[in-house]
Amino acid sequence: MNQHADIQQARLKIGHSACPHDCPSTCALDVELLSDNRIGRIHGDRKNSYTAGVICAKVARYADRIHHPDRLLKPLVRSGAKGEGAWKEASWDAALDLVAEKFVAAEEKYGSETVWPYFYAGTMGLVQRDGIERLRHAKKYSGFFSSICTNLAWTGWYMGAGALHGSDPREMAKSDCVVIWGTNAVATQVNVMTHAVKARKERGAKIVVIDIYDNATMRQADMGLILKPGTDGALACAVMHVLFRDGLADWSYLERYTDDPHGLEAHLKDRTPEWASAITGLSVQEIEAFAELVGMTERTFFRLGYGFARQRNGSVNMHAALSVAAVTGCWQYEGGGAFHTNSGIFKLDKGLLEGTKLRDPAIRYLDHSRIGPVLMGHDDALYGGPPVTALLIQNTNPVNVAPEQRLVVKGFMRDDLFTCVHEQFMTDTAKLADVVLPATMFLEHDDIYRGGGNQHINLGPKLIDPPEGPRTNHFVIEELAKRLGVADRPGFGMTEREHIDLMLDRRGLGDFASLKEAKWLDVQPEFETAHFLKGFGHPDGKFRFKPHWVGGAAPGKPPRNMGVAFGPYDQLPEFPDHVDLIEVADAEHPFRLATSPARSFLNSSFAETQSSRTKEGGRPELLVHPDDAAALGIASGDRVEIGNARGEVVLHAKLFAGLNRGVVIAEGLWPNDAHERGEGINVLTGADAPAPYGGAAVHDNKVWLRPA
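RESULT FIELD:
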């Protein structure tokens, strides 16, 4: 940077915030404020010990998004047929009056459960994201079983550890071996790499990456293991077999901290590297080398991601991978142990924000991963209640991101369904709505965030004024409450800052003003707690090699009206294992498809910016092994069609040798209209609820492949 640039940088006004997007990093941000309503670049805060000055490129160029010419700025009411794209502008009062009128009419016809407020993680801010629950409970609208992101992974972790926390993720920098398992961290949580690379530079640590293709993270690895989708449990079992076989298991740790190590050893006798090689596609030598590395390295840190759990056997895979850390005993050492999420440490009381005391336990819940079957009235999705005839959608784009897209679209196109979408852009979901309301972005309102991938509670105060027109999620919920007759209930009538003050005060963490001064709060538990050296989270304090898959405590357990468990839960294994609950390739569907994240998108966010689209190649592509392509007569750049019983999609082939034969990868959630036929990749993903507690197995699809 030259002297002139240094002077310009010094003159910039800098505001402090937190990234609101659905990423475990929840980065602390420094924002260049160019005026009262305009920003420049965004930078990672160097003083935050986890962010450490590093953020992803897509958030760094957030000005492209917040000042995008296609932002929604006026309330719109549909004036033509659904999906036709004909709209008329309306005032905020008129639009909200119409929404309330339609909700009341739907309720009068079918009862309150016919209305389904539907939301997710377009913002991770607690006030703007979760306030919709307060309206739901006050009005006795259908409940929301939140399953799409975390259920498979969290269930597997919890079955072993009994609590949702782990080793301090900053300890990766103090490790001698960092195992990044099932997450493309360079693309999805860049700060993992910050600390892993620091360990390599300062300590000579080895970085191991386990994934299904040679992605950007694997290209930074000292040891890269490319396995077949859904086979992580087999790898973990073979590694533990070697640890027991070669005397690398820490028996003093196992006897003190685990439930049945002798039973596990006996169970793994025939889970040899040869057995796992046939399942995973890895060589025996690769499995042996990995097992020896983690067995000989006390300070091994297992960083377990979400991606490898998004299979129908995902909970089993997570539990098996986590079990390796218990066999080595690496939990005992700083820079060792395992980490997936710290979601259990924050303990902010959202009771008033979400209106939990207003909840009627008799009201049914609906599975948000199964919005397609729900809207199409499938008996196994409605749980005996009325059809859903009214939707309020915030912070999510189900017509693009939800499984079984054709069912979802067909449901949204129903003439008897009224849909209000509160959004920032005209998304695939907004296009099928009856009313579209313009929403603010994170720098235009107050909120509070907690970092599941680290240990910080961050404040995101309003830094700039929004354009004329957009309103906050909180505003919409409050205004609808007034029109629907529940504004007098507890939790309503409060400002965002008042809700934040209350949550912080109840936790003994000050208030909005003190957090604004501090910027963030570090609530990391002390070493012995984080490493479970005082015992794991189960009542007996033991790590469970023999999980109680059904009936015990779990973070994503379904409400009673949804049943005991989902899927073939009776087939879940007694000990860590490989179970073929996945969509195994067959003669008609010889390929396995994973819908992996793209570096420049985040779910369906950022796909509206030209800079992100350009960096992702400008069009949806399918990674195909060159030998598979040659066998099918496919050349690089060719139009190809992939499909299964749910439908078919056209993409362009990109020949790529960094995956196993029989595996194809579609990176990124491109908007539906970026695809040739106007249908996106989730046409091919299934909406069945995996065992034991549901989720979305979006990386678990058998497909056929042919030239288009």
